[in-house]
Task: structure prediction
Amino acid sequence: MKRREFLKLSGALGGAAVLPSTLLSGCGATPPPPGSGVVKVTPTICEICFWKCAGWVHTEDTKPWKIVGNPEDTHSRGRLCTRGSGGLGAFLDPDRLRAPLLRVEEGGKQRFRQVSWNEALDFAAERLKKIAAEHGPDKVAVFSQAAGAAHFRHLMRAYGTDSFAPPDYAQCRAAREVGFFLTYGETIGGQERTDMANSRCIVLIGTHIGENLHNGQVQTFSEGIHKGATLIVVDPRFSVAAGKAKYWLPIKPGTDLALLLAWMNVLITEGLYDKDYIQRYALGFDKLAEHVKTHTPEWAYLETGLEPDIIRRTAREMAGNAPATLVHPGRHSAWYGDDTQRARALAILNALLGSWGREGGFYMQEEVELPKYPYPKYPKAASGWQDANEGKYPFAYDGTTNVLIEQSVGKDARYKGWLIYEANLPVSVPGVTETIKQAADSLDLIVVVDTMPMEITGHADVVLPECTYLERYDPIRNDRRRQPSLALRMPAFDTQYDSKPGWWIARELGMRLGLEKYFPWKDYSEVIDWQLQQVGSSLQEMQRIGVKSFPRRTAVYLGKDEDYHFPTPSGKIELFSDQLAEHGFDPMPRYTPPDPAPPGFYQLIYGRMPAHTFSRTTNNPLLFQVMPENTVWVNPLTAADWKLKNGDHVQLKNQDGVLSNRVRVRVTERIGPNAVFMAHGFGHTARRLRLAYKVGACDTELITRVKMDPITGSTGMRSNFVTFVTQEV
Ligand SMILES: Nc1nc2c(c(=O)[nH]1)N[C@H]1C(S)=C(S)[C@@H](COP(=O)(O)OP(=O)(O)OC[C@H]3O[C@@H](n4cnc5c(=O)[nH]c(N)nc54)[C@H](O)[C@@H]3O)O[C@H]1N2
Ligand SMILES: Nc1nc2c(c(=O)[nH]1)N[C@H]1C(S)=C(S)[C@@H](COP(=O)(O)OP(=O)(O)OC[C@H]3O[C@@H](n4cnc5c(=O)[nH]c(N)nc54)[C@H](O)[C@@H]3O)O[C@H]1N2
Ligand code: SF4
Ligand SMILES: [Mo]
Result:
């Protein structure tokens, strides 16, 4: 028998089999008659996506009523998105994890047994100690994300590991951040420094704002459009944003770098670039001009399918509005494996337009100088995620999930244990579905801290149920933004069932591991209060106001003719990158054509839909009602070839023979005939998700080919192709 079977959690979770709708009305999720009870408001920070909007939770007689945005907050500006408003659904979900679970073997069969916290924590701590004694603590890999990850980073660094890899690095922003960092010496940041409210021209390349519903960003984007900004959208799909655009460029997927080089060619050959800006701030212009000389719009036409005339007209439009032209850096940049070079091209194009540090382009970010709690120094880990890379990906700034997973397979693997916090690896890390199973067979320990019985919990030895964000304190939010501010998350409700806050779980594990000195406090609110006192505030004040803004210390934009020193090695914007050259990479972005589709196959592209966040909300009873399933978007010509009608069920089969779950067809002109599109996060295989189980299809299972970006370890996921299976198999 395999050492660790995938467990479906069936029957292990206890709890009533209540229908979500019954439960919701019972809990008062619909507003009670006004004035019929005691209304209380509590500050929160939304955890439904990574944008971290601050809001107010309204309860009536301690029952949930609604969550609304905090008007003082620059992330939400007083409004929450569909998903954030539906955040109560995460709290109310009857399928939530309710108690710690331990994998046990009885009569040759494995199952989860509901256990006490003591038993679960003792088990995890004993195994962690054993791994530390036998292999060293650095042999535990940690996959953790979001606000609560800080508790587990702290715990695990104190324990002695430095192998961290969150999916929001390699599967998300890695290439973008490094591409801009190599060029400007600064990253874009989790709250993008885009000044869209003041832009006169906005260029979106793939990034589908409006479906990508990062709140403050959607609001400033709308403001810019409302004030008359020209919008140029480059997307093979007619996205929501494309519907608002003056120019929609339905590019052939994977050829964006060719377009970017052609735009640079036009700006330079027609003398439309910002000469003063380039002369003052940039290095390597002559080499860039030489590099893009042959990349004419006519050359790009053959690659991208976009008419040379459109390429010229859009380049002139950008230049005409510069420097208030923002070529958006995108966010999820793990596309085709050459993604750092595409990000570099985006960074360079913005430099030619003079938009970095200028109104309507990219503003300069600032955060509050909030002292860290004075913990003792962490031990030095004997090895870290860099060692796992074995000399590859020299510009990575965090661990790559796929690498750590691959290095966890077999008896002699580097890693012996996993701790996973708020990351659903089987769905969020494409290309390693089988590897995760193999790793689960050989690892000595898998600890999962989650709120829901997601796919990842099926691989765990021990499942530690965290309460939802509405029931806990977490680190103070202090993001680099236009307006420095702090925000507080605190419990609006008592913890439900036998779940616990992340800080409590981390501390209890720490105590059992002999790490008491790293947890000198009893309750995490003490840490928050101490930090707030250092900046003239207090927990009490923040409990009352939720968000506190601080004055900026530096300017939002570069001053006119300011001699700014960019934090790159040369102090300049590096159009030509010596750093890349030194590591044997192209110092200028070089175009490589995408893989061709096999005959009868279509490129698989995926993205966001407004009602959901990845796989985490598809079982949320409130958001499920808004969008219960995903569809596969198919062009009418393709549909005719396959005799498919709107609403038909199909399965998709990828180039490696992997079959998807059943999914409905949406026949639409909004996607070209060479690609199909689906929203990510659906097609759950975890049975305890009673609403979302097997509803729609999962893009991850079809993405079996991942192209690693050699510069950052970012995992390009768009070189996969699918065909239709119309008879169910
Ligand atoms: N509602 C909602 N909003 C979210 C999230 C969520 O889960 N739900 N997640 C957030 C997170 S963490 C991220 S990283 C962002 C991701 O969102 P973005 O960074 O905006 O999106 P991408 O995944 O890069 O791009 C998806 C778009 O790219 C198009 N596309 C596909 N292939 C190509 C191509 O080759 N070239 C071009 N030009 N376009 C192409 C698709 O048609 C689609 O419109 O969304 C954020 N916002
Ligand atoms: N195929 C495919 N893969 C992708 C993407 C894609 O578009 N397609 N997008 C990529 C991108 S851009 C990103 S950023 C990543 C995101 O990757 P993930 O953040 O891993 O995505 P989710 O699927 O939302 O999984 C979140 C997990 O955290 C749990 N969770 C939610 N709230 C809490 C909480 O308060 N506490 C705890 N302990 N757990 C909680 C959820 O139940 C779920 O198991 O995915 C990447 N992977
Ligand atoms: S953008 Fe929406 S889901 Fe994300 S944090 Fe804000 S309200 Fe929550
Ligand atoms: Mo992301």
Summary: The chain has a mean pLDDT of 95. Residues 633 and 696 are 13 Å apart (CA to CA). The first helix runs from residue 20 to 27. Residues 49-50, 172, 205-208, 212-214, 234-237, 239, 251, 253-254, 256, 330-332, 605, 607-608, 610, 612-614, 677, 718 surround MGD (ligand 1) (CB under 6 Å).
